[in-house]
Amino acid sequence: MKIAPVRASLLALGAFGLAVSAPAGAAAVKEDARVAVLVSQDAAPYQEALDGFRDYLEQQGVRLPIDVQSLHGDAAAAAAALQRARQDRASLVLTLGSIGTQAAVRDVRDLPIVAGLVLNADDVAKAPNATAVVLEFPVETQLRYLQRLLPGQRNVGVLFNPSENQARIDAATRVAAALGLTLFARKVESPKELPDALDSLNKRADVLWGVADQMVLNPQTVKPILLFSLRNRIPFVGLSATWVKAGALYALDRDYKDIGRQCGELALKILQGTAPSALPPVAPRKVVYSVNLKTARLLKLDLGGQVLQAAQTVIE
Asked: What pLDDT, on a 0 to 100 scale, did the predictor assign at position 28?
């Protein structure tokens, strides 16, 4: 998908040096402020986030040039895009996606960075000039939705690679206990350990919870995990709508336009004088989900009318 060019009216306002307004009671944004945007991929969520970013600034009465550069999935294009941002005297860099974010965090020290559509805060953790709206939902959010959508499932199985997710699983264990759930976590340190780890959960877990983990959940493990789920009638939940289409019972998803608005909120605060280091990364504030009704029938689960009505997408 091609990223739409910046609206001519916004460029014209910046070109003629017209004043940039700010909400009542807020600090003013400098008249010569401008934003450089690096869009990592040509896909719908990136366009939606960019639209949300623009819409938020316009709704706040903030009109300034927004220079959009698409990297088309090519990390090598990021250096030239960042060089152009400097030449254009950008006041702030918005990066959408990991490719642009990683390049900006590595190469830019003199400009504030707002990152969106990155999995978690790791990409910006070592950059005091950067903050982010991450894709990953807090553990508590995920487990509360599990309770809401599957209220009878109290024993939660999860597979994880400790080198990637030990801290997350430790936190999940504490959260699960507070919510009255029992977490059965099984380590997977190599692909050959996956079958035994799955089998160990067969008589223990009521539901298999998927967390982002490159070792455990990847294109090569989709089939064995979903087959285990169906054969043993243990629903697999997560990671995304793609997994739901493949046979997962449900997955939480994001409102990408609203993520763009959240990026706009962070950007406006920075343009009004707040240091990026004073703005910790935030999770998506809107949660939506998709459901595979065919999988529910195969698992002999009745999700209830309210769950299905509230779903963003129902696959039948």
From this structure: 87
> Which domains does the chain carry?
8-135+256-284 (3.40.50.2300), 139-253+288-315 (3.40.50.2300)
Report the distance separating Cα 301 and Cα 249, nearest Å.
10
Tens-place pLDDT, residues 123-136: 999 999 999 999 99
Model confidence at 21: pLDDT above 60: no
Residue 285 CB: number of other CB atoms within 10 A? Answer: 12
* Position 7 pLDDT exceeds 60: no
Looking at the DSSP bridge assignments, the partners of residue 207 are: 156
- Give CA–CA dist 253/116, Å, rounded: 15
Distance in angstroms (rounded) separating the CA atoms of residues 197 and 167: 19
* CA atoms 102, 125, 183, 292: torsion sign: negative
Q: In which region does residue 108 sit, left (phi positive, over 0), alpha (psi from -120 to 50) or beta (all else)?
A: beta
